[in-house]
Structures are given as C-alpha cells and as structure tokens.
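Minimal example, chain plus 4'-deoxy-4'-aminopyridoxal-5'-phosphate.
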Amino acid sequence: VGSRSLESIRGDFPILSEKINGRDLVWLDNAATTQRPRQVIDRLVHYYEHENSNVHRGAHELAARSTDAYEDARKKTAGFLGAPSPDNIVFVRGTTEGINLAAQAYVKQYLKPGDEIILTLLEHHANIVPWQLIAEETGAVLRVAPIDKTGQIILSEYTKLFNSRTRFVSATQVSNALGTVAPVAEMIQIAHAHGVRILIDGAQSVSHMPVNVSALDVDLFVFSGHKIFGPTGIGALYAKTDVLEAARPYHGGGNMIADVTFERTLYQPPPAKFEAGTGNIADAVGLGAALDYVSAIGMENIAAWEHTLVQYGMAELAKVPGLHLVGTALNKASVLSFVLDGHETEDVGKYLNTKGIAVRAGHHCAQPVLRSFGLEGTVRPSLAFYNTPEEIDALVRALFELVRR
Ligand code: PMP
C-alpha cells in the first residue's frame, strides 16, 4: 500500500495478531469499527502520562500541553478534510451526534409545516431518525431519493425531488450496507443549483478515499473517529463558517460561553459555541494521530489498494454456489454484502466466527435500503487497507465449506 508492505502495516495493529477460536483473526468488520494502530494507542498513553489536564481553563503547564494537543488535533482534522480553517471543525462524539447537531441546531430553525428535507434510500438510521425527529416537531416532511438495482442513486430522480419547499439535503457518501459510493459531487452541485444546503455523512467514506470538503463545496460533513482507526467517542463535524454562525448552540454549559448572567448568555464564536462542557480531549488527540497515520500512507494509495481488494472479493464471492451479492454498483468501497441461499445470515456469521473470521450479519442499521431489496439482513464482510487477498480467500474457503456441509 503505497511505499509500505502489507506485512509492516499489519504489524502496526496489535489486535490483528489475535487468535480467535484457535485461528488467526480475520477482521472483516471494518464498516462497524476499524482497528487501531500502535501509533494511536501510544498517543493515548502519552497523553495520559504526560499531558492530561482540562483544556483552556487552567493557567499551568499541563493545561497548556493538553490545550495544545487538543487544538493540534483540530488542525489535523481540518487539514485532513481540506477545510479552510480549524475553526470549521467541531468535535463531536461521532457521526450520529454530528448529524443530530446539524438537524437540531442548524436546520430545525428554518423549517415550517410542509417544508421538505431530501434524504436517499441508502441512509444509515443515523441519517434518517434525526431528520424524522425535527420533521415531527416542525411539520416538515422527508423525501427520499431512490436507487437502481445495483444500489446506486438515480441522479435524475434525485434532481426531480427539488422544489420551492426543499430546505435541506442530507446524504451518505458511501453506503454502510451496500458499499455504494454515491455521486456526492454531483449531488452537492444539484442541491446548490436549487439554493439548498447539503450535509454529507462521511462515516464510511473518509477511511477509504481522499475527501476534500473545499473541493466538494459541501456545506456540512461528518465522520466518526472509530471508523478511521481512531478512538471511539470522538468524531468531527465540518461546516462552512456561515453555517456555524447561523446555527444555534446545541448544548449549553461551560466552555461555550463568553459571558453569563441570569438574564442572558453571550456565546463563544464557533467552534467553541458547540463544545459545551469538558470534551473528549484524549480521544480527539488520538484521532489526530490516526489521521496522521493514514495520511502518511496516503489516502490515494489506500483507495487504490482497497479497489483491488473489493474487485477481488466480489469476483471470488460470486464463485460460491447460492451466494448473491447485494449492492453491485460500479463505484463501490469496502463493503461486500451478500445473502446465501438456504442459510440465515446470523448462522453464516456464527459459522465464520468459528473460523476466526469476523463479519457483521443483520440489518446494519440500514433497514430501508435492505428492505428495498426484499431483505431483512445480509452478511457483510467489510474491508480496510490492512486486509489481504489471503483473508478474502479464507472467507471464501469457509463459505464453500459451509455450503458443502
Ligand atoms: N452513517 C453511516 C453511513 C454509518 O456507517 C454509521 C456507523 N455504522 C453511522 C452513520 C453512525 O456512526 P456512529 O455510530 O459512529 O455515530
């Protein structure tokens, strides 16, 4: 992958050497969460051993260190996404919190009964339910862009959804259930041509391909640290400056204020305005280390290697008798969802576990899209750049054994 051998990359990830049921772990559940390299784990240890303090408030050496480390992570996140400034980055718990923040603090104030929000059929529940909540509160309605039988957004149908009542669009860049890479550059342009702002859910994209929020001209963008080799409980919301200025505070408390009296409160400018209370300082620092790690390998290199793996995986899985791939869009990342004739998805997952192979089986928090294929669940191997063709071979071998039993 780039200039690094797979063997040396895998050596960075201690957990990849685990034995599961007497076998080498084959981690193919990267869409649920990725594993962490030593560099991220060490950074967390270093933080707690040498830097730990609350940020901003204390006038002492450790407060300076922790503040520097936290703000440095914000700079790294901005740089990684191609954001104009670290001030455009709000640290959140993850994609879910980022989308809820966008819905509650920004979009809700503009909604009147009958106004419309456009989503797509590909969405994870995290990009459906927050919009339903504000729709229920305001009388707005959700419109859903359909997909074709490969699992790709039908752009002409998406375009037709816009009208004078459209207030906002929220769409995923990569489907966690099918792996479809949506044409978000076009979707953003189309939204803007109609004068509508758009949020892109990057939970499944940032670890698999280069993303530049400025080149995309996207208004809001969210991702989770744990899906890009960083810690759990930390993620980032990018938004354009005017969006952050127009948004109301999401949570109230310390850190986000400039001045408080019982009569009124003056807020800090963004991003502090959205970061009430003590944040997840250590894990933000760990996220910074994760972004450094993937940047050193190169997102282009990661994307190229994973493209090879996905193509290989699709071709090999298709050889298994009775196996049907779900999600066959030409532009696809990481996810190899399938169903197997005569076998419940959960049973396939359990069988693979006996071979040390970790996959997800079920609805993957994306029930609407699976139901559009007439399914309640799939088996979902999902790849990261540290996976190998040999691991795909192990998966396919185990599936052959299962169908021959
Ligand atoms: N959106 C997508 C596309 C996802 O895959 C996920 C995680 N499965 C989420 C949102 C939610 O992310 P988190 O649970 O980290 O908040």
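The mean pLDDT is 97. The chain has 14 helices and 17 strands.
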